[in-house]
């Protein structure tokens, strides 16, 4: 329970501390999204719904459809892929004329324009590549068309997107109709392929029948005299003569039929009249000739010419109808002659078979008859199938149909303003929180003792709460420096005492096995300026003095001494003056200032020193000062310059028994703190104890220590 409360509290604190980073990130992301929405051209999407009937359609046998249901969904998925295929979409593009459409048509890319500008290619060469143009239009068309199956149903949705709502509906409907027409055309093509194969087989069967009949006739002709002599039948010769006459008449009629059909296809009415010698056709042709003569004399474009041409069309239709009648008569005549031939041929055969023939003649005739019968049966079967296939080719139905045509949409489908802005807000919050976390835990400063110790391996002995009156002015810094004296029972004062306790414990562990004499030197430093180092050093010195220790506080920041201003002091001389003079131990007293806390002496700075100060730290005067301080005081607190900007602190660290590193809570970057620690350990060695203090901590209302603020602080007595 405590752990979860701590996590929630930390999360709330993180958001509160990094609120401006989070808000800025959200505003930037939302602003970019708004610009994107504003710059986007609204597009509209229209959808057509197609129902795929998995049953194969057969108009000649509707009952057979029920037994053709598939057992899987492969059929519907196949139709989806056909709709997506380039061939179907190219046909739709052709129907719509999108090659020259300003939205979907050919457009020169930036590279092409650059090549034209540099005269590497010409506009004519680019536009002459029709295949490349078609591929570009097809790619643009495919990007704006969406085809998908609706769940596990047999319904396919065909959606088209365009800047024009009417065009979007037109594209969806045209693509759907193109697909359905292609489906019908494919069925017709299959049927016609079967028809062509059957026609070839029929031609072979017809040839076989003719060959068989010719073989029978040839056998009969070759053996007619022998058959007549053996059978004593003279009528066989007569029937044979009649058969030959019918054959000649049938060939003549077939030739005339073919010739007239060819002339009719070319509308050669004169030739037809000459061939058929029909009084009706001759009369109609005479009427036609008269109308043609009248047309020649009529004024071009006149009503009379128009009426005459209408009459000419009617006469042509009459001629066509009459020629069809004559062709039908010829066809009937040919059929009749063929039937008569078949009758005579059968009679001859029957007569021959009924005659007393020798066995070898009977066997041969029977063999030829059986071959002819089989060929005719096969021919009739193929002919029946051919008629069925031809009928199916004319009655093909699509297996798919449009159940809902696309309508022009009223509202644009993109950009989805609400969705984009909502996602932008969510993304902005996510990114903002992520940046806030990175800033606080990796890029930014430290916000907890555990975080500091986990990252740097340095113990944190206390967190000093931020005082509402803390600031950078002299007055505000003086108030902070006096907080321990003025309000000894506040959380701030308790955190200072916690620092003193932490330092004492670390020093005890360090010195318990060593016989060391003299005072202990505590260095108070920070990685960079503005961390609250000086006020913390003053507070630490006063805390030790108030515990009964003899304490010396030394302002070692020779370049920017801060203790005197923080305490409101105006010294006549400072540490820099002492270090630049050759004075004995008795003369040091004139540089010592008494604090109002008994037991605390101070050596403060007077003015900023504008020259190099690290050499002063290494002088014999400073060594003498440190030796005298350790002899006369139990605790020596050194307020040092910032570690990273100035090297003075690193020299001072070699003299210290412990370093108190003051780090501004949630502000000083982890990189700077790590660099400062590395510098200290490089100069003073890894054995130098370092204890961290988080200053100006915003503990918040839910803080563990703040819960007991009433215990720390009592109102002043009146």
Automatic annotation (TrEMBL):
Class of the enzyme per the UniProt entry, highest EC level: transferase
Membrane-traversing stretches: 19-39
Membrane topology: Multi-pass membrane protein
Listed EC numbers: 2.7.10.2
Parts forming coiled coils: 195-249
Annotated keywords: ATP-binding, Cell inner membrane, Cell membrane, Coiled coil, Kinase, Membrane, Nucleotide-binding, Transferase, Transmembrane, Transmembrane helix, Tyrosine-protein kinase
Residue ranges annotated for the Polysaccharide chain length determinant N-terminal domain, each copy included: 5-95
Lineage summary: Bacteria, Pseudomonadati, Pseudomonadota, Alphaproteobacteria, Hyphomicrobiales
GO cellular component: plasma membrane
Pfam families named in the record: AAA_31 (PF13614), GNVR (PF13807), Wzz (PF02706)
Sequence similarity: Belongs to the CpsD/CapB family. Belongs to the etk/wzc family.
Catalytic activity: L-tyrosyl-[protein] + ATP = O-phospho-L-tyrosyl-[protein] + ADP + H(+)
Domain (AAA): residue spans on this chain: 522-670
Subcellular location: Cell inner membrane
Protein name: non-specific protein-tyrosine kinase
Entry GO MF terms: protein tyrosine kinase activity
Listed SUPFAM superfamilies: P-loop containing nucleoside triphosphate hydrolases (SSF52540)
InterPro entries: AAA_dom (IPR025669), Bact_polysacc_biosynth/exp (IPR050445), GNVR (IPR032807), LPS_length_determ_N (IPR003856), P-loop_NTPase (IPR027417), Wzc-like_C (IPR005702)
